[in-house]
Amino acid sequence: MPRSANSAVDKALDLVEIVTRAEHPLRLSELAEAACLHRPTALRVLSDLVRRGWVQRINDSYLPGPAVLRLPRRPDALTALARPLLEHLSQTTGMMVNLQVLETDRARVIDVVRPERLEMISHLLGETLPVHRYAGPKALVAALPATARHPFLRVAHADGHPVDHLAQALSEVERTGRALEHNGLIASLARAVPGPVCALTLVGPASEYLPAMVPALDGALAATVSTLHAQLTPGEHPAGDARTE
Predict the structure, then answer these.
(1) Would you say 181 and 170 are in contact if contact means Cβ atoms under 8 Å apart?
(2) Angle at 62 between CA 61 and CA 64, to 5 degrees
(3) Domains and their CATH numbers in the chain
(4) pLDDT tens by residue, 33-80
(5) In DSSP terms, which residues pair with 113 in a beta bridge?
(6) Predicted TM-score of the model (pTM)
(7) Phi/psi at 206 (5° precision)
């Protein structure tokens, strides 16, 4: 939850962030509690946000407004923030590291750090990857609500991949938080940054992804994902009991 707001800007941004990150429309009471605001204060700020288009009110609930929906996607901003972490993770593990984001029915690789020893492995930078063949898309799709997974499952079905097997695999990824994929001589291990905002994937020789080796790789990957998540959500702190007007 966000810290108790200290200014009108804090209050407004807290509410916009809560509304846009929610998995379902929220009522006034839920928003006020999440933002540590009294209901009259939350209502006053929400009214301004509705007027400016950052939030829309449908019956008694609030959803992201047209101003939020019109915001351009800026993968360059994400890659600039994540690049030092990718470089450190690659140096620490010796593996290629890529950064992926979800698109309509696949995941796109938007940045790659590849050590010299792995130059024989294709970096796939700029390519879109289906969920049934790669770890990165699996980690991202598994982090979605079940109702949002259908476009990605349709791609697998069209490619002749058994959808029931894929659904089981996604359930396992959702349970463990990580996706492990072997494609011949190459293996990959991926985790999604909560949202899901993006996924980080470690790629290397399958011989270096034996069961005894995976925990150390996954530990380094999980720590990096946690760090990136903290950098992407700097305003999220445990909320205290104090409430502001």
Answers:
(1) no
(2) 150
(3) 8-69 (1.10.10.10), 75-232 (3.30.450.40)
(4) 999 999 999 999 999 999 998 998 888 899 888 777 566 667 788 899
(5) 97
(6) 0.72
(7) -60, -30
